[in-house]
Amino acid sequence: MSSYEARLTITREGAGLTARLALPGRTAQDALGAFTEPESLRKWWPGELTADLRRGGAYRVHFAPLGQTMTGVVEAYVPDERLVFTWGWAHELELAGRYQVAVSVHDQPDGTVLELQHGPRPGAELTPREGEVEGHLEGWEYFLPRLALAV
After folding, report:
1. pTM of the predicted structure, to 2 decimals
2. pLDDT tens figures, 86-139
3. What is the chain's Cα-based Rg?
C-alpha cells in the first residue's frame, strides 16, 4: 500500500458516497486538473477526456479498451476549486439516468485535500440497482489511489 492509499477514506451515504483524498505536496490545480485536463486524466483513468468546462458543456470520457463512453454535462466549474458533472454510460442513459459527481479541492499547509461526492442517479435514493453503489465504491477505491500517484 502506498502512503497515498493510507490517506484515502470513502464513506457510503445511502445510494451515494463521499471520498476524501489527501495529496501531500500537491496543489489544488494539480488535483482538479486530474479531472479537467486530458493528459492528467489519462494517467490515472484510462480514457480519452473531452470536456467543455462551461456550465452546460459536455463532459465525455471514451474508454477504448472497453468500447464504452461515459457522457455527461458540466454543472459547475471553478478553476482550482470545484468541478461538478453528471455522467452515465452512453449505451444505458435511457435506462439508468445520470449520476452526479462533485469534486472540490482545498489547499492545506502540507498539500491539498480532494473531496469527491458521487451522488446517486435520479430515483436511486429509494431503490438503487443491486450492486450499483458497491460498484462505484470499488471503482473509486481502485482509481483514486492511482490519481494520487499520477498527480
Report:
1. 0.88
2. 998 888 766 556 889 999 999 999 999 999 999 876 665 555 566 677 888 999
3. 15
DSSP secondary-structure letter at 5? G
Length of the chain: 151
Q: Dihedral (C-alpha) 130, 131, 133, 136: value to the nearest 10 degrees?
A: -140
Query: How far, rounded to the nearest angstrom, does the alpha carbon of residue 112 sit from its chain's CA centroid?
Result: 16
The boundaries of the domain holding residue 23 are 5-150
CATH number (domain holding residue 130): 3.30.530.20
- The three cell numbers of residue 103 are 469534486
Is the CB of residue 76 less than 8 Å from the CB of residue 55? yes
Cell 480514457, residue? 47
